[in-house]
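User: Please fill in residues for this 61-position structure.
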């Protein structure tokens, strides 16, 4: 699973708990997109989460 290049957000792990309180492993995936980003040396493709895109921490190329 990819991580955000800006905030290092990745997948989270835990347990899914049923009504009878049985626990099974669960994985929550973050909303990470492959985006072309402006850098000082030109443009570069990196993985960025949508919350970083929305907040303006990254400028698209």
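Assistant: Residues filled in for all 61 positions:
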């Amino acid at each position: 699973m990819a991580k955000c290049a800006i905030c290092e957000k990745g997948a989270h792990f835990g347990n899914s708990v049923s009504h009878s309180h049985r626990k099974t492993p669960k994985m929550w995936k973050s909303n990470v997109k492959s985006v072309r980003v402006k850098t000082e040396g030109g443009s570069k493709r990196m993985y960025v989460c949508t919350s970083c895109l929305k907040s303006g921490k990254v400028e698209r190329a």
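For context: The chain has one domain: 12-55.
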